[in-house]
TrEMBL record:
Protein name: Threonine synthase
GO cellular component entries: cytoplasm
Keyword annotations: Lyase, Pyridoxal phosphate
Highest classification ranks of the organism: Bacteria, Bacillati, Bacillota, Bacilli, Lactobacillales
Family: Belongs to the threonine synthase family.
Domain Tryptophan synthase beta chain-like PALP: 103-342
Domain Threonine synthase N-terminal: 2-79
InterPro entries in UniProt: Thr_synth_N, Thr_synth_N_sf, Thr_synthase-like, TrpB-like_PALP, TrpB-like_PALP_sf
NCBIfam families cross-referenced by the UniProt entry: thrC (TIGR00260)
Cofactor(s) essential for the protein: pyridoxal 5'-phosphate
Amino acid sequence: MNYRSTRGNVKDALKSSDAVVQGLAPDGGLYVPVDFPKPAYDLEKLIQLPYQKLAQTILQWFFNDYPAEQLADGTTKAYADQWDDDSIAPLSRQKAGFNYLELYHGPTLAFKDIALQMLPQLMTKAIKLNGVDRDIVILTATSGDTGTASMRGFSNVDGTQVIVFYPDGGVSPVQLKQMLGQPGQNLTAVAVKGNFDDAQTQVKQIFNDQAFNQRLINNGYQFSSANSMNIGRLIPQVVYYFAAYGQLVEQGQIKLGDAINFTVPTGNFGDILAGWYAKKVGLPIKKLICASNENNVLTDFFTTGRYDRRRAFHLTSAPAMDILVSSNLERLLFDVYDEDATSVKELMERLQNDGWYQITAAAKAKLDSEFAAGYATQSQVAGEIKYVYETSGYLIDPHTAVGSFVARQYQKNSDDQTPMVIVSTASPYKFPETVYHALTGQDTQQQGLPSIKQLHDLVGGELTAGVKELFDHQPRKESVIAPDDMENLIAQVLKLK
């Protein structure tokens, strides 16, 4: 299968393995399939497969230039004993009216693990397939979880360097501890003054700096990305939508062929886009509900068709959603504009230059038929955490609470009572201060690891292996730089001549 840029000509398409290594297209666009897969499969048999085999099957649809045995080996290694639940993505039975798809049972306690345990497998195999003789520099901006998960996934992987930039003061104490405490000789994490969008914008500019890229090549390196702009990060996320559907059927909550809804806490739009791709390859999804926090640029977009990043930026209790430029939305625009790369390029240029764009009425109508959107304030997030716990004894993190609240409002304000799955993106123990305050109305005595203990003392239960591991590593000293210094920092880390 070949992949093209959302902003470029189809004649410049690459094999999937090349697109995985490259990460971001040279024209600034994102890679999408030239011909989207239309696989023929028996849904009943597919959803009965164990997660590893399910992942292998779906990845083969999108990455068919990889030999089947390589994908089998990759999925076996990615979804092995580093997970604390054998199902990888277990679905809770009804809790406070919803099913929660728990995507946080991997080593860094967030949904990013599901893709970022697989991406190194895809990356290293692609390097061998294509005879790449340079080291790969994984360059990533993160609002918290991507940085941690990419560092864990690529730790001490031969032929790779990982450089992560995160917003200064814009990640949780536990996320910061994870990034600075992750062992690995090839890992660098640095804070950037400003917010996530400042870091991500600069990363994109560095990717597109041809002179700097040539300097890298001259020194035996090339860039790639580990965030969801990389198609190799995005596609593994399609798998857990099928896994969720299979568990609903197995539990007798739906019959085979019934449609379901997903509500997805959304920042950079990768997670919900994977749900869209799952629907495109035939999974019976009725609606995808896009849930935002107070940085509700996506809610306004789905409501009005106008994307406008010119607004106040809010630091919230759900930092992975503190984003005003949702990069993966570009891939959805490519679809609703009938793969018109010229129009997509014009929209993205207007966003960069003017800070906003307006989509056509035809494109808006397509979105309305497939998506809904809503947002939750800080107080509503806290209220939802408390409500779910007091109603069912079930603990959720602030990102999941955004999704849960928005789903509840969606059902209240519509006549759509289709079975609902909330995509639960992180362990509540990644945000113990927020969860404890929501439950008690009081602050934890200390931030970070002591607050985990305080929350656990409150709610009881067994801590997972991933949570226990947080106490094992001593963090490195934090460094803070200006966005304009990011390129110089990369040169220093790589010792470029």
